[in-house]
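Workshop exercise sheet. Pairs work together: one partner reads the sequence aloud, the other fills in the structure field after running the prediction. Swap roles for the next sheet.
Pair: D.N. / O.F.
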Amino acid sequence: MTQSPHKHFHRLAWAAVVLTLVLIVFGGFVRLSNAGLSCPDWPTCYGKATWPVQEHHIAAANESFERPVEVHKAWREQVHRHIAGTLGLMVLGLALLAARKRRFGTAVMLVASALVAASIPAWMRGMIELSAALAISGELLLLVAALRWSNSDLSRLTSLLLMVIVFQAVLGMWTVIWLVKPVIVMAHLLGGLLTFALLIWLAWKSTPDTDLVHGDAKPLRVALWIGLALLVAQIALGGWTSANYAALACGSDFPTCLGQWWPQTDFGEAFVLWRGIGVDYEGGVLDGAARVAIQLSHRVMAVLLSAYLLWLGWRLLRGPGLRFWGVLLLLLLVVQVTLGISNVVLNLPLAVAVAHNAGAALLLFVLVTLLARVRAPV
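Structure field:
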């Protein structure tokens, strides 16, 4: 049985869940407003902890960096980084609380965090090999701790969470230095949602008396896992669509695409994950046929996922104690489908596109919540 390591642990966990949702939504806003490369360096922005605002700072930054300063975009990227840093500190706090009763638990968390922290100034000074060695050492220390500890006091889960947060920071750095490479952008999105899912699980497991006892718990959990797998696949396709600027590959046509049910496509080019380093992917590099293939794949998967979640929601409505979650799942599904269609027919309004990102995160919240809470009677 899981025991909360501190009486306020679940409150901090829920605060981290909310902050992660804010981070995911704000990250979508940064990406969709084409601000992902508005700070050409990392973790600073034009050499500053904030971003250039005053005229002489902007002029100095323009002389030192090839990319000219766009203040209205730079603040978005750097605020996103600051929110991510705050979340990292919250997860470190959770990890320290969970590991404090383990032998050398506090020391392990602090040493691992110090190694990762030391890798950042090493990176900024151009000592790439040393930076990588420090970060990898910190990650390995956390991995060993997670493998050695059980999850009875949530120490294993928090150690894994801290590992994910560190790797997310690395992906954020690669997003900048590899010029919004699509596979990195998609991985960064999935990493953020993995962080969100793990924190949801942690929050429910540390909150007292939240189990939903159900007689058909085992088959229901299998159905929930399948739904989660389909949702993650669709989110990955959505991230790939956005990263390759394929959201409007079909124009504003729906349900057809460019006036046809199945126009010319190029699936061979559409799903090449690695195209080398040094290519600037801002604006996309694929031709129309490849982008159409990505957009159609996203639509087909949306139909499959929607059909499955409709069935799953109907099943939840029939389950004792699960009616609320069934209604919520179906409502979120209707809203999400509406937002997806609106993105196309309205030519991708920023507010609608950001809301579509948030809808995916909320669907994930429902499925992970049920997986964390539903259990068979003793």
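Discussion prompt: The chain is about 70% helix and 0% strand. What would you look at next?
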